[in-house]
Structure formats: structure tokens, C-alpha cells
Batch of 4 targets.
Target 1
Amino acid sequence: MINYKHLHYFWVVAREGSIARASESLHLTPQTISGQLGLLEDQLGTRLFNRVGRNLEISESGRLALSYADEIFSLGGELEEVIHQFPKDRPQLFRVGVADVLPKSIAHRILQPALMIPEPMRMTCREASLDDLLAELTLHRLDLVLADRPIPATVSTRGYSHKLGECSVSFLAKAELAQKLEGGFPHCLNGAPILLPGAGTQLRSAIDQWLDRKRIHPKMVAEFDDSALMKAFGKQGAGIFVAPAAIETEVMLQYEVESIGQVDEIKEEYYAISVERRVLHPVVAAIMDAAREQLFT
């Protein structure tokens, strides 16, 4: 990386027109500045000044370097001014990415403690695929990613997966549909209309495997990438659907459905992914502590 102290000395010499005047401006000896300029030229591999008699004349490479230095130190001055004018009580920005397969109700419950911390805070949420969110995290455009799985082994992302917890799943249905089911759970699912998460998700794979082991064959009516849309169809009585057991009561009240049964063999896992191995961000720490101590106990 270029030595910006050396670049600053070059910038001042070019503006002042000589090493002598630059030494007065910088309060350094001419020998010190001359030596630092030589180191910068060695690093860049080109002459920045040509000596004409006792004077220095900036070279073509020097003019190019000067145009960049002008912009660099202008931005530096602007940064200093902005920082000094930065309001001390401005809310802290917390940027979180939510994997698109994560149920919105769960994401809401996980993130809710972020709005309860005493310090002023403004939260922005972005929903996308896990791969896209991990790329944003690597570029430090996000402070946290919520997902239903840890960082995949196939993804080369510098980050750390912190498990928040896990819970079983509940099968729910409109009361009118539940009354038509025959037999006890789970065999009452045989031939019953069911709404399932989209193919390729962790949850869908676990449900399919469980149904195969139990030799249960429901009638699949529809599959959804969006769990909220699946619940909306379930509220209308289109079929039985699944939801995390941790929010079973909330889903029953919101969507006016009842629980048919829970399956402990099917587990949904939840992860907070950050660039920190040891979480120091106060908002992230508050979210993780609340999830582990309250939501997924």
C-alpha cells in the first residue's frame, strides 16, 4: 500500500514549488522531505520531479500523481469536516439481512430486541438469498445476516455462524378443515390437503423425509417460497401448513387456525451470521442473547 505520509510530502512540495518552502510549511528539514520523496519514487518506480538547475520541475508522472493526491487530500479534509459536524445524538445504523426462506414472524421475533435498546438506533432490513446476503456481509454492507443454516461449506465468505437455537414444527389448519380429518395425528395427514414450503429448502427436505419414514401421503395443494403467503392460504382453509413451534400461539391467533400436532423429529435451526467470531456489536449481542434465553429456550 502506498505510504500516504510520503504522498502528502510530495503534494505539499508540488503545491509550494520547492522543497525549501515545503519544509517551512511542514516544519521539517529539507533533508527529511527529500529522503521521503526518494522513498515514494522508489515505491512508485518513477521520477516525480526533474531537477532543472537548482529548481524542481514536476514530471509527467508527477502531474498524474498530483491529480490523484489533490483528490485524496481534498476528500480527507471533507471527511474531517463531516466528522466534526456529525451530530453526537444521531441514531446508530444497524443493517441486517434476512434470508428469504426465513419465516417473517421468526425474523420479527429475533430482531424485536434491537428496537428496545436504550441507545438511539435506526434499523434497515434487506431480504435476499443467503448467497447474496453473505456477499454483502463480506463487503461490510451488513452488520448481521439471519438464516436457517450456517455458512455453506461451498461459500468462501469470511464470517462466523452463531447458532441462535432450534425448534420443532407445528402442523396447523383452519378449524373446519381440522374437523374433517380422520384418525389421530400424524396419520390424519394421509390424503389431506397440505401446503408445503418450496422445494430445495432445509425445511421442505426435512418434511419430505419425515413423511416418507412415516409412510404418510398427503395431497399437496401448493408449495410456497414465502411462508407468509403459505399461511395466508392456510387461513382461507386451502390446506394444512407448517410453522415453527416457537411461534405456534402467535400464528394461531393471527391466522385463525388451530394446531393439529407437533413433530419433534423435524427441527428448524436459526443462525446469526456476522464478521465477528466474538460478537462485540451491542445490537447483535442483544439479539443473540434474547433469542437464546427467550425465543428458543
Target 2
Amino acid sequence: MVIFRRTIAGLSTSTLERFVLRARRAIHLSSIVNILVTNSSDLRALNRRFRGADKATDVLSFPAPEVERNKARSVAGDVAISADIARENAARRGHSVADEVKILALHGILHLAGFDHERDHGEMARKESRLRRQLKLETALIERAQGRAGKVSTGAKRRGSAAGARRRRA
């Protein structure tokens, strides 16, 4: 399910839902992914509440508890995206806000699939780069962070502990 609390020019609910489905298939993630596109204020509040970081961020992922993952129509979790930061990133990168939201969604979905760029020695970055090309997207989130700082460091974080153990390799 996709919920827009902030509208994005050129990106409808159905377009983002189709992209999420394509991304899930490419990652081999059969579980449902919920996406919230909202403002930086909401992302800051979520970041403060769940990660203890009192700052806005571009994307947050919240893996579902094991109980939800074991149901017939299992839910992988939720991804929250800041439309404000997506607009800033898109302007700085010279691509559409719609594409930026897709880049952020892909990054969040990879976290829901169990990838963690802070601990996996580049595995998530390689996977994200391949998927970005496959899904016809601009530079991946991790690649941008590595290019800026020479290391992996993005605002995107996962919430939950068991998801990392279920890393999917494809």
C-alpha cells in the first residue's frame, strides 16, 4: 500500500505501487511493503522516536515483527520517505522527484529484505547498484553516499533486529 501525505509531481499512487512490485520481484521479496511519502517533519519525528536521532532523514525502514511475516499475506514492513528531502536530492542530482522517491523506496525495500549497508561489507551497495540499473534508475543511494564521503553513510536506517538474519541473496 502506498500513502501520499505529500504529493509528488509525476508520481501517482498506482505508479509507485507498480514500481514497488517490480522492485520486490527483483529482490525476490514476496511479502507486502507499505510506503508512506510524507514531509521532513514527520521523518524527523519517526527518526527521533525509533532511532533516537533528532533530525530529518530521507528514508526509514521498519521491518514487520516475525508474527506478521509468518501470515499467509505476510507484510515485510513499512518504508517512510521524506518528499521534502526527495525534492532537494532530485534538484541537486538533476533528475525528477518521482525518480528520487523510487530510489529511496528501493533502498528502504532492500533494508526490509534484510540488507544492512552498515554491516555487510558492500553487499547491499552492490545489490542496490545492480537493481538500480535493472529498474532504470539514477545513481543508487549508497553509491552517492560513498562518492561524497568515501564510505557508506546515509540517512536510511533499519529498525528491528531479526531482519538482518534473514538476508536474501539474489
Target 3
Amino acid sequence: MIDAILHSKSAIRELPPHLEQAAIDAYAHSLSAVWVVAGSVAVLTVVTSLFIQEKDVGSKGEGTGGGVVGDGGEGLGGGTVVARGH
């Protein structure tokens, strides 16, 4: 009977009235627990994101692409690096 209820919510309607109410209460309890956990994670995520520091990730040299200098092998593409002072 439990397996039928887990796979088809319409099976709840086939239960006797006192078991039908118990099944509905169990679903309501499980859904409220999921919302409490999900809401807590969301609030924790927002609060912790307020403490993320901004960092500059720009490159120190001039260049284009992000590949390996040389033949590149089977990379994502050849990069071009312009060295200063050479």
C-alpha cells in the first residue's frame, strides 16, 4: 500500500478516511521540512555571499587567447603572448 502511495498520489483517495488524513499529514510534514531546509540554505548562501571579497583577476602581461605558447598540441587553441622588453 505504501509503495502504491509513493508512486501514485491518487492512491491516497482509496485509503480509509483515517489513513487518508494520516497520509496527507505525512506529505504536508515532509514538504514543510523540505521548504525549511531549502530556505535555510538560501538564507545562508545570501549571508555568506556578502563576505566575498572582490579580487582583480586580470593578467599582468599583454596577450590574447589562453593557450600554450608553441605548437599547442591538442589544446583549445594557440595563444599569443607578447613579452615586454624582449
Target 4
Amino acid sequence: MAVLSIITGGGKWVELTIHADPLYQHLLLTAEKKFWHCVQNGETPRLFGIEPPRPRLEAVRIVDMSASNSWAEFAVTFRRTRSAFQEHEGVKAELKKLVPEDAKEALGHGLRAKRSKSGAISFDVMEVEATDAPVQ
């Protein structure tokens, strides 16, 4: 077995115990033996007959995308929505700070925050009830 100890972004400590998988251990040991054989004999490793991934080309050129209609369309949308996205991410971080550490869920004003078993908080938009609307 193995134990994985994690400190999440929120500072919560999580410990996961993973039990041994005999099949996975066997496959891992077989792969290690094949790899070591390649090292000793100078062969290129080819695990289970799978083609290795192609190396990434080094990015070396600048490309003008002005002639692309798709690029133009997406660029306009990206520029138009960028500030809203940044505001959204900032507000999401502030909302997460407001959720009490011992809360599994927090809800109100048409928004539900759910805490996962690992401690991560996600949000869902809910139907807003007339009594739940903010006072103006």
C-alpha cells in the first residue's frame, strides 16, 4: 500500500491510502525490466509495441493571423469577454473564502457552493426565488 499526503490550495490536509494492485505492479515491473534491457543493449525502448509520441516542434516563427476569419471572430469574443472572466474568477475566489470550513454546502441568492470530499468548492446557479432576491 501507499499513502499520499496532500495539502490543498485552501490549506486543508488530505491523506489518501491506496491499496496495492497486483496486476498493475506486475505490468510496472515488466515494463521496468524491458526498459533496463534496452538500456543495457542500447535499443530504443518500445513498450507494448506502442509508437512513442512525436517530439514537439520548437516554436520559432511569428504568424500573422489577420487573414483568418475564424481567428477574427474568436479574437473579438475573447477581447469582449476577458474583463467579465477576470471579474468572475475574482468573485469566485472571494465566495470560496466566505464558505465556512465545516460547511458541505452553502446557498443563497441563486447560488449553491458544494464542497467535495477533497475540500474543493464548486458553484451551481439555482433558480432565484422572489424572496431570495437582493434588497435594493
